């Protein structure tokens, strides 16, 4: 049966376009129920009488139909293995897909779980359930009517099926169909039409066998709260916001909450380089970190300056009205900030207030329950692990069980009469402090996809046993006889690059970089490809790896292990003895790595002159050429930067850190890096020439001059002049920053330089001008990522472009779509940033575990001088920490003091701290005592206390035994304790 669907669409020019589409209806779509005698069922029954749910509201067998709002709001309830025999209408499924891709994905996983008995009924193509849109009817009203029609049809259809004498004689009660909706209008119409209906909350409360399911209910408001006094200004309506943005009375941007001050944040707006400052609870107006908000700029006379005050919210409970103490605290904070701004008017920044929310970016949050002062209450305060997130009010009946547990909570709403947002409990992660639990928190808080790969994803993997066929050999260049080897960190199993170098008859060298051909196994558009694109990158935690692709590929079929034939994508150059590229070529190949080595093993082979194997010769040639390439890059203005990096030795059973040390860099590290850089630049030039509009590239913007201020000032007071005009002069300046009495000084200068840099990002060539392609850190006019497709999806995209350009693979529509590739790049930039943050958090966690129960005195250097602290670097461990100089609030006279009344004076001009005759500059040597402060169970921190130089009343008092240096004695004492 054919019908016509008509709808209108407004074009970019403002014209109204009428669209007519054919819509086919059928009479052979099955209902999916084992009670039905009429429908043709082409698969196993999904709606069965095996899973009957006991409900005090509906005391008879029943199926459920879900309204769209129930799926969107109550997905955490639906994910519990409680509800069965659920009819999912395609009308609802399409609405969910349109409104929330993340919930759609979660809902789809439930539907595909055959044990849950969720049946998708194609009501939009069934002749008895299709609802045409009436004139003047909104799309939402039409969808609501379609849902009611389908529910009514199901109820009548099943009644007819159960009206036979055989069924009556069986003594079974009739199965009915119940609509769950939280839409008051839809519910009223359903009741008027004789449909059984209930809200999600009513239905869940009626399930007497599952009382804890109530904890997972999404709450739009808590009981007895509607009459509470407003604590925040009302948000503008979306219509008002859009009008304000159009008239440029309002500005739009992403809100970033302060980690140090819960009453401060900023909104990133394109037209303001440093964003718009937001201060005070009312001006923050219920914005949560990440939300897209509308901001009203305050008059310039009311602009303020960012606060340097660290202000944490004290233990408070779900009071409806803020206490006088809290109100006074907020006023006091704002007064101090305004006084600071008045004293330094040049530092005033554009300040505003949030007047509306454009789009919420709420997610699930990890944290702990705060112990309640009220006995036998279900209402509790949840404290997120992320300091930028406000506390959340939840209702739970298992508070006693959840104490000292890490739990997950999500926000449902934030009414203006509630001090905190309101949410609900999702699940418990495990005991606080447990290694597995804390790793899970890191992954969740940094939005790292880490669930197991689905069956659908795994179905696109090659079937084992897998082997290279004669057809494969015919399509590829055979390089199995070459002396190819790989050089990687110890324990590396996802080996995605290998190299070779051999001398040619003309005296030149053939150098090859061979990269795992992951794109051969991951075809565009399938579930495996979509999952890899969503993950974006492999995430490395201490002792744990979250793969971008399944292990069969990452550690087996794609990994270029020694002695095994593998598919590769090869970039091969002919270079002369001065490393000048004479010729280049790309081809898909078959290789057989002769050896997989660690950096240390390769270095030993290079340094041992008695080793004359082909692999040893190849490595020596590569190492010599790499030094020439590196010098050439440096001469062009490339920067050699540094960052403190830690390597942990982890217990194989407990996964706890046994030893920690700074990572060692060898010549072989640099050797591999140089040829990977050369391959990336060579490929970037090629794909940008072939695909001028859609090449995937990577750029590193030049930092604004103000970014370098801390570096320039710190170097100046050490007697060095750092010029930041260009990358080349900066590089030369850094080379000159050398102190004979402090071999670590140059490394610290480079670490400080790294902090001044901008983030490197992926982009599409057609979106920027060629001069903006520049990679500042590498001094390369053009750059991309080609060399790590096992762990970066960007490299898979580049492989596909390169393969298409040389005829090794076919093109496809999305490969050349600029817009879709730009969206992919945005996701990759986000995923890479989160992966970096997660890795740092993992290092922090393991550092805390290593120092638990220990105290050690170590030599370090002042990296930064802050207003109330010194940032100290410990070279032995490659870690940083903060040595706080001011531990009490300002005195009445405004002077900041430590608890011992030792006074430190901060000089803003030369960035120094003075206490008596002791002056601290950046890069000064210090001795500090390291210990772990576990007083805050959720936020343990490594404490730095000064040992040397000695300041009476502030430094740690050491033993009077002068023959035993504090460092050695502390370590000996620690060993005795252990």
Automatic annotation (TrEMBL):
RNB domain: which residues? 476-808
**Needed cofactors:** Mg(2+); Mn(2+)
What GO molecular function terms would the record report? 3'-5'-RNA exonuclease activity; RNA binding; RNA endonuclease activity
Top-level division of the source organism's lineage: Eukaryota
What is the predominant subcellular site recorded for this chain? cytoplasm
List the subcellular locations: Cytoplasm; Nucleus, Nucleolus; Nucleus, Nucleoplasm
The question of whether Manganese is a record keyword is answered with yes
Q: Name one GO cellular component term.
A: nucleolus
Query: What InterPro entries does its record include?
Result: Dis3_CSD2, NA-bd_OB-fold, PIN-like_dom_sf, PIN_dom, RNase_II/R, RNase_II/R_CS, RNR_Ribonuclease, Rrp44_CSD1
Signal peptide boundaries: none
Keywords, A to Z, come to: Acetylation, Cytoplasm, Endonuclease, Exonuclease, Exosome, Hydrolase, Magnesium, Manganese, Nuclease, Nucleus, Phosphoprotein, RNA-binding, rRNA processing
Q: Which residues form the PIN domain?
A: 62-188
Name any Gene Ontology BP term: defense response to virus
Assembly with partners or alone: Component of the RNA exosome complex; within the complex interacts with EXOSC4, EXOSC7 and EXOSC9 of the exosome core complex (Exo-9). The catalytically inactive RNA exosome core complex (Exo-9) associates with the catalytic subunit EXOSC10/RRP6. Exo-9 may associate with DIS3 to form the nucleolar exosome complex, or DIS3L to form the cytoplasmic exosome complex. Exo-9 is formed by a hexameric base ring consisting of the heterodimers EXOSC4-EXOSC9, EXOSC5-EXOSC8 and EXOSC6-EXOSC7, and a cap ring consisting of EXOSC1, EXOSC2 and EXOSC3; DIS3 associates with the base ring of Exo-9.
Alphabetical list of PANTHER family matching this protein: EXOSOME COMPLEX EXONUCLEASE RRP44, RIBONUCLEASE
Family, per entry: Belongs to the RNR ribonuclease family.
Q: Can you name this protein?
A: Exosome complex exonuclease RRP44
Top-level taxonomy: Eukaryota, Metazoa, Ecdysozoa, Arthropoda, Hexapoda
């Amino acid at each position: 049966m054919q019908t016509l669907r008509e709808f209108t669409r407004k074009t970019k020019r403002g014209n109204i376009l009428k669209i007519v589409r054919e819509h086919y209806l059928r009479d052979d779509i099955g209902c999916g129920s084992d009670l039905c005698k009429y429908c043709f069922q082409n698969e196993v029954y999904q709606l069965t009488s095996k899973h009957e749910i006991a409900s005090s509201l509906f005391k008879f067998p029943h199926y459920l139909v879900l309204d769209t709002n129930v799926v969107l709001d109550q997905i955490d309830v639906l994910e519990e293995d409680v509800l069965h025999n659920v009819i999912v209408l395609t009308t609802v499924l399409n609405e969910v897909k349109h409104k929330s891709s993340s919930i759609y994905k979660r809902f789809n996983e439930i539907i595909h779980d055959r044990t849950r008995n969720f049946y998708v009924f194609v009501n939009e193509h069934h002749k008895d359930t299709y609802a045409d849109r009436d004139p003047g009817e909104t799309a939402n009203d039409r969808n609501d009517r379609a849902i009611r029609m389908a529910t009514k049809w199901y109820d009548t259809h099943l009644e007819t099926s159960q009206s036979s004498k055989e069924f009556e004689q069986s003594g079974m009660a009739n199965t009915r169909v119940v609509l769950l909706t939280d839409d008051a209008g839809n519910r009223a119409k359903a009741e008027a039409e004789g449909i059984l209906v209930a809200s999600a909350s009513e239905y869940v409360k009626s399930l007497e066998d599952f009382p804890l399911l109530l904890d997972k209910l999404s709450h739009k408001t808590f009981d007895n709260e509607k009459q509470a006094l407003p604590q925040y200004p009302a948000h503008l309506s979306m219509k008002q916001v859009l009008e304000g943005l159009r008239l440029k009375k309002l500005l739009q941007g992403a809100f970033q909450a302060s980690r140090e001050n819960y009453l401060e944040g900023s909104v990133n707006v394109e037209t303001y380089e440093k964003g718009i400052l937001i201060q005070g609870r009312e001006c923050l107006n219920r914005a949560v970190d990440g939300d897209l908000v509308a901001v009203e700029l305050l008059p310039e006379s009311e602009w303020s300056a960012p606060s340097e005050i660290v202000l944490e919210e004290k233990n408070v409970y779900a009071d409806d009205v803020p206490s006088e103490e809290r109100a006074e605290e907020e006023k006091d904070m704002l007064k101090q900030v305004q006084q600071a701004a008045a004293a330094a008017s040049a530092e005033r920044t554009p300040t505003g207030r949030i007047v509306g929310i454009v789009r919420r970016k709420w997610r699930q949050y990890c944290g702990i329950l705060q112990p309640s002062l009220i006995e036998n209450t279900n209402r509790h305060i949840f404290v997120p692990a992320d300091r930028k997130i406000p506390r959340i009010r939840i209702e739970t009946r298992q508070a006693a069980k959840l104490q000292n547990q890490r739990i997950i909570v999500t926000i449902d709403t934030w009414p203006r009469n509630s001090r905190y947002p309101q949410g609900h409990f999702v699940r418990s992660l495990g005991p606080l402090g447990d290694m597995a639990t804390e790793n899970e928190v890191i992954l969740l808080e940094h939005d790292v996809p880490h669930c197991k790969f689905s069956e659908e994803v795994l179905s696109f993997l090659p079937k084992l046993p897998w082997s290279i066929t004669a057809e494969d050999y015919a399509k590829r260049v055979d390089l199995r006889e070459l002396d190819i080897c790989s050089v990687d960190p110890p324990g590396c199993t996802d080996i995605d690059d290998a190299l070779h170098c051999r001398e040619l008859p003309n005296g030149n060298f053939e150098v090859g970089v061979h990269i795992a051909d992951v794109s051969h196994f991951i075809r565009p558009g399938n579930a495996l490809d979509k999952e890899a694109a969503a993950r974006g990158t492999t995430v490395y935690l201490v002792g744990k790896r979250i793969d971008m692709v399944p292990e069969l590929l990452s550690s087996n079929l794609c990994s270029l292990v020694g002695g095994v034939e593998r598919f590769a994508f090869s970039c091969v150059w002919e270079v002369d003895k001065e490393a000048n590229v004479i010729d280049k070529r790309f081809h898909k190949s078959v290789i057989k790595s002769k050896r997989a080595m660690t950096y240390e093993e390769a270095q030993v082979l290079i340094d041992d002159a008695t080793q004359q194997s082909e692999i040893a010769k190849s490595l020596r040639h590569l190492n010599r050429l790499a030094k020439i390439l590196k010098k050439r890059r440096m001469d062009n203005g490339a920067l050699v930067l540094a960052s403190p990096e830690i390597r942990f030795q982890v217990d194989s059973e407990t996964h706890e850190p046994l030893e920690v040390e700074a990572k060692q860099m060898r010549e072989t590290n640099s050797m591999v890096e140089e040829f990977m850089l050369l391959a990336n630049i060579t490929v970037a030039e090629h794909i940008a020439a072939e695909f001028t509009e859609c090449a995937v590239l990577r750029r590193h913007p030049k930092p604004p001059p103000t970014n370098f201020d801390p570096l320039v000032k710190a170097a100046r007071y050490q007697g060095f002049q750092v010029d930041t005009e260009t990358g080349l002069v900066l590089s030369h300046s850094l080379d000159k920053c050398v102190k004979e009495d402090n071999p670590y000084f140059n490394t610290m200068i480079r670490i400080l330089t790294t902090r001044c840099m901008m983030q490197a990002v992926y982009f599409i060539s057609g979106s920027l001008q060629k001069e903006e392609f520049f990679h500042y850190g590498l001094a390369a006019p053009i750059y991309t990522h080609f060399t790590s497709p096992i762990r970066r999806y960007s490299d898979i995209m580049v492989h596909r472009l390169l393969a298409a350009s040389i005829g090794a693979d076919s093109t496809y529509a999305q490969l050349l779509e600029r817009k879709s590739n730009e969206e992919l790049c945005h996701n990759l930039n986000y995923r890479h940033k989160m992966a970096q943050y997660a890795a740092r958090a993992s290092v922090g966690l393991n550092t805390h575990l290593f120092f638990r129960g220990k105290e050690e005195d170590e030599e370090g250097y002042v990296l930064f001088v802050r207003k109330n602290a010194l940032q100290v670097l410990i070279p032995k461990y490659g870690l940083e920490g903060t040595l706080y100089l001011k531990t009490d609030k300002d005195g009445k006279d405004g002077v900041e003091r430590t608890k011992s009344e030792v006074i430190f004076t901060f000089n803003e001009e030369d960035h120094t701290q003075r206490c008596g005759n002791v002056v601290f500059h950046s890069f000064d040597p210090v001795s500090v005592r390291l210990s772990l402060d576990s007083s805050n169970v959720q936020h343990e921190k490594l404490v730095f206390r000064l040992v040397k130089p000695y300041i009476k009343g502030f430094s740690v008092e050491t033993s009077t035994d002068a023959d035993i240096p504090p460092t050695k004695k502390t370590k000996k004492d620690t060993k005795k304790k252990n």
